[in-house]
Write a structure and sequence with these properties.
Blueprint lengths: L11 H7 L1 H12 L3 H4 L5 H4 L3 H13 L12 H13 L3 H21 L6 H33 L6
Helix pairs in contact: 1-5, 2-7, 5-8, 6-8, 7-8
């Protein structure tokens, strides 16, 4: 009998980094089903322009773990995203929905690649992903609200 070879498991950060494009494509497919979001006309490239930088921040967070709930990482990409979405006419609810869809798309990517992932750290990484995506949404919403105060236009629900 030969020795059974075990496949080396990959880090969640590595899988997400390698699957960024497919995850963004999945996100775009899901967003394209949302009539409210689509009420803001733009190209798919413009709609997803912020995501590569968001993924880069997310991978950095996974490779440099922080205690859950830590808001130590500030994201220029999240800040800029909030400003852009305000200028594009998004409502806060649209931004929250985009963020929810992003988490679903990321988790679906992990599910598709489950056999490649290290089960010993998977749950911690999933919690870090949710924490980071929520933190980035909070940062985007902060810049969105600050921009609303500058331009004086009301924030629509």
């Amino acid at each position: 009998m030969g020795a059974r070879q075990t496949q080396k498991k990959e880090a969640v950060a590595d899988v997400l980094e390698g699957e960024t494009k497919s995850t963004i494509d999945n996100w775009l497919s899901r967003v394209s089903l949302e009539a409210d979001i689509l009420s803001i006309p733009m190209t798919a490239a413009d709609r997803s322009a912020h995501l590569p930088a968001i993924f880069k921040d997310l991978v950095t967070r996974l490779r440099n773990p922080l205690p859950l709930g830590t808001r130590a990482l500030t994201s220029d990409a999240a800040h800029d995203h909030g400003l852009s979405r305000r200028e594009q006419g998004y409502t806060p609810a649209m931004m929250v929905e985009e963020s929810r869809i992003l988490q679903v798309s990321i988790f679906q990517t992990l599910q598709k690649n489950l056999t490649r992932l290290d089960p010993d750290v998977l749950l911690l990484d999933v919690m870090a992903i949710a924490d980071e995506v929520d933190s980035q949404l909070a940062q985007a919403m902060t810049s969105y609200v600050l921009e609303a105060e500058v331009d004086g236009a009301p924030i629509e629900p």
